[in-house]
């Protein structure tokens, strides 16, 4: 009898310990708020104030502070979801990212303007990482960068603006979870065919490109991404729209404003899902808007007719 009682008592102790461990884990991982609610939260700009109100800190801005190390006790800010570390080039990024793994709710991280040359592989250990900005780091090795990011299983948005990127390595196609990709203010001539492996991509921005884009290749590649809904190509020095635009039958919004476009091929009528076409600030021929409205009767067309020079 004593033997059975001892076993029963031991079982109770084990169950109690497991419950305590679960409660402790839950207390360590504060519940996350939505992106919409996160936008309404205050930006904390210094650690003294942040540590005085740790339960109120969802956004922490440590830009341009000439940091050499992350502030002490940053791990106490357990509710942080968004962290700006822009313009702190003297940080040891291996140690910095290792420290950030203690922030279990961190899913928006900005490392822009840091003169980065490589992105440490331990970035994958920031398990909740969802949005990453690494704009204005033109010395980064992009192939190694994408190798480091491919194991970030929750990475949905990636911003690579102002990096003077001329060629995108093929292994960008390994970032399989990407939904939004920002490539504006670069020097692209084309995109790799491997981009079509991003089967969850819904949004692509390539505004202010400083070189002539191969639109035939771009449109052909993007046509193989069935989830793509928005394409932005504003102010890219585009003068001619190739027939391959007709392949973008899945796209719902296209920005082509601020270019040198005069007209569009008839094949654009195949874009039956196109809801919005922005083509203002182009030297369109006077009849172009009327013709587009005939070809795309269900599309909202934003245009201002500027008579092209003869």
Account of the 3D structure:
This protein has 310 residues and is of the alpha/beta class. The chain folds into two domains: 130 residues, Alpha-Beta Horseshoe (Leucine-rich repeat, LRR (right-handed beta-alpha superhelix)); 115 residues, Ribonuclease Inhibitor (Leucine-rich repeat, LRR (right-handed beta-alpha superhelix), Alpha-Beta Horseshoe). Helix content is 23%, strand content 11%. Strands 1-2-3-4-5-6-7-8-9-10-11-12 form a twelve-stranded parallel sheet. Strand 11, helix 7 and strand 12 form a beta-alpha-beta unit. About 3% of the residues have low confidence.
List keywords for this structure.
single chain, 310 residues, alpha/beta, Leucine-rich repeat, LRR (right-handed beta-alpha superhelix), 2 domains, 12-stranded parallel sheet, 12 strands, elongated
Query: Which structural class fits the helix and strand makeup?
Result: alpha/beta
Strand order of the largest sheet: 1-2-3-4-5-6-7-8-9-10-11-12
User: What portion of residues belong to β-strands?
Assistant: 5-15%
Shape: elongated
By CATH, the architecture of the largest domain is named: Alpha-Beta Horseshoe
As a percent range, the share of helical residues equals 10-25%
What would you report as the Rg, rounded to the nearest angstrom?
25 Å
CATH topology of the largest domain: Leucine-rich repeat, LRR (right-handed beta-alpha superhelix)
CATH H-tier superfamily of the largest domain: Ribonuclease Inhibitor
Mean pLDDT metric: 91
H and E string: HHEHEEHEEHEEEHEEEHE
The CATH class name of the largest domain reads Alpha Beta
Question: What is the total tally of β strands?
Answer: 12
The oligomeric state of the chains shown is: single chain
Task: Provide the domain count.
Answer: 2
N/C terminus separation: 105 Å
How many DSSP helices? Answer: 7
Largest sheet: 12 strands, parallel
Low-confidence stretches: 19-27
């Amino acid at each position: 009898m004593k033997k059975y009682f001892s076993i029963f008592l031991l079982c109770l102790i084990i169950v109690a310990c497991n419950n305590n461990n679960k409660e402790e884990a839950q207390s360590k991982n504060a519940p996350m708020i939505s992106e919409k609610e996160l936008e309404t939260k205050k930006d904390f700009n210094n650690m003294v104030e942040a540590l005085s109100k740790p339960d109120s800190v969802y956004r922490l801005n440590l830009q341009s502070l000439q940091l050499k190390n992350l502030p002490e006790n940053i791990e106490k800010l357990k509710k942080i979801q968004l962290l700006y570390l822009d313009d702190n080039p003297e940080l040891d990024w291996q140690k910095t990212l290792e420290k950030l793994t203690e922030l279990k709710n961190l899913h928006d991280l900005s490392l822009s303007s840091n003169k980065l040359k490589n992105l440490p592989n331990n970035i994958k250990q920031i398990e909740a990482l969802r949005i990453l900005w690494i704009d204005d780091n033109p010395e980064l090795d992009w192939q190694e960068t994408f190798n480091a990011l491919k194991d970030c299983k929750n990475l949905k948005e990636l911003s690579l603006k102002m990096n003077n990127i001329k060629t995108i390595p093929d292994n960008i196609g390994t970032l399989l979870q990407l939904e939004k990709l920002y490539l504006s203010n670069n020097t692209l001539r084309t995109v790799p065919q491997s981009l079509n492996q991003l089967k969850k991509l819904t949004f692509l921005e390539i505004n202010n490109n400083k070189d002539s884009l191969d639109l035939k290749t771009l449109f052909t590649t993007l046509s193989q991404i069935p989830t793509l809904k928005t394409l932005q190509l504003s102010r890219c020095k585009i003068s001619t729209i190739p027939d391959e635009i007709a392949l973008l039958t899945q796209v719902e919004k296209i920005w082509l404003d601020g270019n040198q476009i005069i007209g569009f091929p008839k094949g654009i009528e195949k874009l039956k899902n196109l809801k919005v076409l922005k083509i203002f600030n182009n030297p369109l021929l006077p009849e172009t808007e009327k013709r587009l409205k005939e070809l795309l009767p269900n599309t909202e067309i934003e245009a201002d007719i500027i008579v092209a020079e003869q």
